[in-house]
Structure prediction request, 283 residues.
Amino acid sequence: MKTSSAPGKPRAKAILISFEVPIREEFIMISMQGRNAVVFGVANKRSIAWAIAQRLSEAGAKLAITYQNERLKQEAHDMIVGLQGAEAFQCDVTKDSEIESLFATLKERFGHLDTLVHSIAYAPAEDMKADFLNTSREGFKMAHDISVYSLIALARAATPLMNNGGSIMTLTYFGAEKVMPSYNVMGVAKAALEASVRYLAHSLGPKQIRVNAISAGPIKTLAARGVAGFTEMLKAQADRAPLKRNVDVKEVADAALFLASGLSTGITGETIYVDGGYNIMGY
Ligand code: NAD
Prediction:
């Protein structure tokens, strides 16, 4: 086990674990005490949404965490209610009635909301696997409805509860900018998602509601299983990224906590990369 620290700067001691991800032994705690957050998109313990929910909970936030449907409830519900300060809700973001009833419940339970995490995406497997030229109209619509429009719908529903300002964030991927074989229609949806983040930031800025995206490096999750060649993507990331490794989901959760917290009040409309620097490389 090696230790590392930045030269000349007093900072938290770090250790490197076997896959070379620096994990802090001590860290400066960002407090989310007295803050309310809703996190969308927990399918199982590997979900990025779950790592973010755990991080927000550790920081003291009161949480509403959603799963998509009855099928996912089996795994997600017990996990969620076992988390300190968390309640579980079902919400399929393609259904306006479910969004409306969820936010009516949040208004009753929380009164106000400080943070919204959108960690949801879907595209039909056939459309992701097909040559991009053969993307179906239906697959294109579905990918954009679930992965992009839902952010706008959720932001609109959350706005009346964010009467003290707030932080909204979503998860994106570098396939929005550069071609990733097999990402296909999802890459186009992520480009629309990143543009929506900028337009929402402009729309909600006067209310001091910030909207940002975290562009995460590849992480093994349920959604990632739908991307053909995902193992090669993981390998390419570890080979080419300046940090020479894959990112840990906890690193994404740390960035989410930063964006939720008072340490990022001047940041909106941005895509923040948690990808070990992969996006800066030219090869
Ligand atoms: P995941 O499968 O755990 O999460 C995706 C979630 O989207 C699931 O909980 C699923 O139920 C939900 N979802 C899909 N359709 C829905 C609907 N109609 N209503 C409500 N929820 C719905 O996988 P993940 O990797 O944690 O994905 C979370 C986000 O992170 C996605 O936006 C994904 O594109 C993004 N992302 C993932 C990676 C990665 O490598 N895993 C990298 C960058 C960005």
